[in-house]
Amino acid sequence: MTEAASTEAAPVSLCAREPHVPADRLVAEMVPPPRFDSVRFDTYIPDPNQPSQTDAVKVLSSFAEGLGGAHASGSGKRRWFAKKPAAPSGPRGVYLDGGYGVGKTHLLASLWHATPAEPGLKAFGTFVELTNLVGALGFQQTVRTLSGHRLLCIDEFELDDPGDTVLVSSLLSRLVESGVALAATSNTLPGKLGEGRFAAADFLREIQGLSAHFRPLRIDGEDYRHRGLPEAPAPYSDEQVTKAAYATPGASLDDFPHLLDHLAKVHPSRYGALTDDLSAVCLTDVQAIPDQSTALRLVVLADRLYDREVPVLASGLPFDRLFSEEMLKGGYRKKYFRAISRLTALARDAKGLVEQ
Q: How many CB atoms lie within 10 A of CB 217?
């Protein structure tokens, strides 16, 4: 490879990116992530051994159809000065209760797509993205922005932060009063180790004032990413990863410890923008995560990469050794296992980069 060719083909570095994300982009991006652009109820493949998965599709399909009429406030448009409508009778929300990898996000995105309303009247985001929206717009403006919506889907409702839980619960109370239908999945509370799933009773207790508006819908099953799929490929050498990065247009190449340091300087709300236009992420010298704050930042990055279907090619430690035994037994256990599962799937996707 000549010097000129090498320069022309040089991969980008995530560590050189410091994206700024305006508030209007946060609102516009409240749609299912690219990975879930084309999912629908009929593309969800229920495990034949788990009848609750088939039942969930039927219940959610009916729920979507029920949102096809006028907005519960009497109009599909925002009514800024209208008299506050009475709260809708019966559950106006559904909570998908199940472990990681059973397809809750697939079903939640399918519900968003199936709801007969224009995209501007439906919102979809993670709990973190919703709190970021409140931070960017302010509480009252967020209420005004979302109160004319037909449906708000919240993926990975994080109940391990009491302050944020109260904030979002207050927001949802205001939206329910405005007639917005809700759908949510949730993460495990600290100490809730069990099956690696969050119990519906705990979710409803944490959002006490909203519990009457949610119908719990349990979805049993094992992590679909491990159903009959091959094990994740072993890490490659630094040389293989670097060569693949230079051979793959649009790839990034970073030293893993340096990337972890850089993530501490970028707000997690901007991790999606950090990965804009990437075809692959190549990492050298993957090491065990040194502390919990760093680990939680990596979890967010893994989620954004998974949402965007960006393959991850790496050297160093395999992804199932990123987190310490102490972390995997602690209150954020479910987040770490989700990150391992998603990074493993992306590592499989990256296998072809070395073979090309």
A: 20
